[in-house]
Amino acid sequence: MCIGIPMIVLACREDTGECEGRGRREQINFMLLGEQPPGTWVLTFQGAALRTMSADEAEQTARALDALDAVIGGEDNFDRFFTDLTERAPELPAHLRGDKP
Predict the structure, then answer these.
(1) Helices in the chain by DSSP H: which ranges?
(2) 34 and 17: one domain?
(3) CATH number at residue 11
(4) Are 86 and 63 in contact (CB under 8 A)?
(5) Is the domain of 21 the same as that of 59?
(6) Is the pLDDT of residue 78 over 60?
(7) 24: domain range?
(8) pLDDT in tens, 2-61
(9) Which residues contact 63 (CB under 8 A, 6 or more apart)?
């Protein structure tokens, strides 16, 4: 299984940058994205920045990774990790509701 880690750019120069996320700081390869300004959230995998992401998406991804850690640790209550889903009624997408565009 491949798991990307959201990290925030602290500094970036040409093809590499210093990023921080999930309690660690790493040098990340930016050849796929190019130079990014500090404060940009990126999805990283095996030392490379794959794409930029919003702060909200980074937070949701971090919560999902926290839930995965909880599963590995034997925890069985996951609602606290997905309050954006558990605190609202489920909605079907428009194409499944039969809405006309």
Answers:
(1) 55-72, 83-86, 94-97
(2) yes
(3) 2.30.30.140
(4) no
(5) no
(6) yes
(7) 7-53
(8) 789 999 999 999 899 999 999 999 999 999 999 999 999 999 999 999 999 999 999 999
(9) 81, 82
Q: Say what the pTM is.
A: 0.76
Contact criterion met (CB below 8 Å) for 57 and 34: no
Query: What per-residue confidence (pLDDT) applies to 11?
Result: 97
Q: Measured between alpha carbons, how far is 2 from 24 in angstroms, rounded to an integer?
A: 19
What's the farthest any 2 CA atoms get from each other in the chain? 49
* Residue 31, domain member (yes or no): yes
Residue 66 tokens, joined: 């926290």
3 state DSSP class of 27:
strand
* Nearest alpha carbon to residue 49 among 14, 84, 78, 23: 14
* CA dihedral sign, ordered 73, 78, 83, 85: positive
8: left (phi over 0), alpha (psi -120 to 50) or beta: beta
Please state, in angstroms and as integers, the Cα–Cα distance from residue 74 to each residue in 39, 41, 58, following that order. 34, 30, 24
**Under 8 Å between Cβ of 37 and 9:** yes
